[in-house]
């Protein structure tokens, strides 16, 4: 079941997440849905029918068939979830894209973001804040230390180096997903250097944006939550109150 501890971290302890499983919007200031995509032929064909020509063309440009199916299924489910929240047919969902590719609704204030890892896709929705979400499969990466040295901030590098060996993978992906969620909430792509803000990363430590520029995350209006939807997957949701800098 979903659990929320100390108003900070969100986790779900289950072996599988069915499409549409969610943290109710009534219980939280944002809404998260984590789904295992249905990649069966019939489901993918039905999903493709919901997409505009530009998205079907984007899917067709992907090199691998499985990636094409995942793209179609994830974007079709996005439209269904948006349609539920806006009470309009999925075919009427009109999306626009920011300078760095972040999707948004063309005619509505509802904010959303999505991320995928393997056959799982996570969606986040909010009405009163910018929002970003990222999920990753926790796995062994031989070059993790080199990546951390290149993109983590100095404070994050020190925290990562202090972790015991058996906590490194979880710490690495905890840091990675929290930073990605922040960047995705901003919608600035690489316009926000990853070493210009600090996040918590130690396993078991609450997700926090410790610093962004010269301010703490709280001063800048940011909130981070940890997401553990299924065993082996870690993620984060970043939110920023609109109108704050």
What features would you describe in this structure?
With 245 residues, the protein is of the alpha+beta class. It folds into two domains: 2-134, Ribosomal Protein L22, Chain A, CATH 3.90.470.20; 137-241, Alpha-Beta Complex (Ribosomal Protein L22, Chain A), CATH 3.90.470.20. It is built from six helices and 13 strands. It has helices at 41-50, 53-60, 65-86, 144-151, 154-161, 168-186, and strands at residues 2-5, 9-12, 22-23, 31-36, 95-97, 103-105, 111-117, 120-126, 129-137, 197-199, 209-212, 222-228, 233-241. The strands form four sheets. The protein has a five-stranded mixed beta sheet. A four-stranded antiparallel beta sheet has the order 3-4-8-7, with no helix packed on it. Strands 5-6 form a two-stranded antiparallel ribbon. Helix 1 (41-50) crosses helix 3 (65-86) and helix 2 packs antiparallel against helix 3 (65-86). The longest helix has 22 residues, at 65-86. The protein is globular. The termini are far apart.
User: Low-confidence segments, ≥5 residues, pLDDT <50?
Assistant: 1-28
The overall average pLDDT, rounded, is 85
The CATH topology of the largest domain turns out to be: Ribosomal Protein L22, Chain A
- Report the total helices: 6
Counting DSSP E segments of at least 2 residues, the number of strands comes to 13
SSE order: EEEEHHHEEEEEHHHEEEE
Into how many domains do the coordinates divide? 2
Gross geometry? globular
Rg (CA only): 18 Å
Largest sheet: 5 strands, mixed
- What is the CATH top level name of the largest domain? Alpha Beta
